[in-house]
């Protein structure tokens, strides 16, 4: 029993420190005027690490946050999650999961969590991340040069399609920064 309490207490502490409270959904914003930067190769061609408007699923976007933090983030294409991988059945219809990767490129320690990512379907309906298991959650304290990965899971209607994922974090004072990156 003691072996179970320590990991659960650690997970609860991490969730509390990361500010994992349900976020207020925000309407999509024009990310072209955001704090994203475009990276390009020496030949002037766009590299696979692009930013700005929506990038393709699986590509990296670089975003700048407060306190000089610069992150590189990738979101994989949404796919149905096998219900056997979840500890709880879906309440809305089905689970859709995306693979997420992030790395702190510059700045001080920063955090990233699944509650900063919103799934939007083709009808404009917005879905917050659902906790389906404590295994493989996307909740990390980032340190420079150490990439992290995990899954972000959403509970959506069974007929939902045409997904976009938006990254809208908060700053160090919990002020919303708006949509800094999106994947389509």
Question: How would you briefly describe this protein structure?
Answer:
Residues 25-54 are annotated as: Disordered. By secondary structure, this protein is mainly β. It has a single domain, classed as Immunoglobulin-like (Sandwich), CATH 2.60.40.1240.
Mean pLDDT: 78
Q: Do you know the CATH topology? A: Immunoglobulin-like
General shape: globular
Largest sheet: 5 strands, antiparallel
Q: Please compute the radius of gyration using only Cα atoms.
A: 16 Å
Q: What string, H for helix and E for strand, traces the elements in order?
A: HEEEEEEEEEEE
Q: Are there runs of 5+ residues with pLDDT below 50, and where?
A: 1-50
Structural class: mainly beta
Signal peptide: 1-23
InterPro entries: DUF4352, Immunoprotect_excell_Ig-like
Organism: Saccharopolyspora kobensis
Domain DUF4352: 112-170
Give your account of this protein's structure.
- With 184 residues, this protein is mainly β.
- The protein has a single domain (2-183), classed as Immunoglobulin-like (Sandwich).
- Helix content is 9%, strand content 30%.
- It contains one helix and eleven strands; from the N terminus they run αβββββββββββ.
- The strands form three sheets. Strands 1, 2, 3, 4 and 9 form a five-stranded antiparallel beta sheet that branches. Strands 7-6-10-11 form a four-stranded antiparallel beta sheet, with no helix packed on it.
- The longest helix has 16 residues, at 2-17.
- Mean pLDDT is 78; it is low at 1-50.
- Residues 31-53 have a biased composition (Low complexity).
């Amino acid at each position: 029993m003691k072996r179970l309490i320590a990991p659960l207490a650690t997970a609860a502490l991490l969730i509390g420190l990361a500010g994992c409270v349900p976020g207020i959904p925000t309407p999509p914003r024009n990310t072209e005027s955001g704090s994203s930067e475009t990276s390009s190769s020496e030949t002037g061609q766009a590299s696979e690490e692009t930013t700005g408007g929506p990038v393709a699923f699986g590509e990296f976007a670089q975003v700048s946050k407060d306190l000089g933090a610069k992150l590189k983030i990738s979101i994989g294409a949404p796919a149905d999650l096998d219900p056997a991988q979840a500890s709880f059945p879906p309440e809305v219809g089905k689970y859709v999961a995306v693979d997420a990767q992030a790395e702190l490129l510059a700045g001080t320690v920063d955090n990233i969590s699944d509650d900063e990512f919103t799934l939007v379907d083709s009808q404009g309906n917005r879905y917050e991340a659902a906790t389906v298991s404590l295994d493989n959650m996307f909740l990390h304290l980032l340190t420079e040069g150490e990439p992290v990965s995990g899954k972000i899971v959403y509970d959506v209607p069974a007929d939902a399609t045409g997904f976009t994922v938006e990254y809208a974090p908060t700053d160090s004072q919990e002020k919303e920064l708006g949509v800094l990156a999106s994947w389509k």
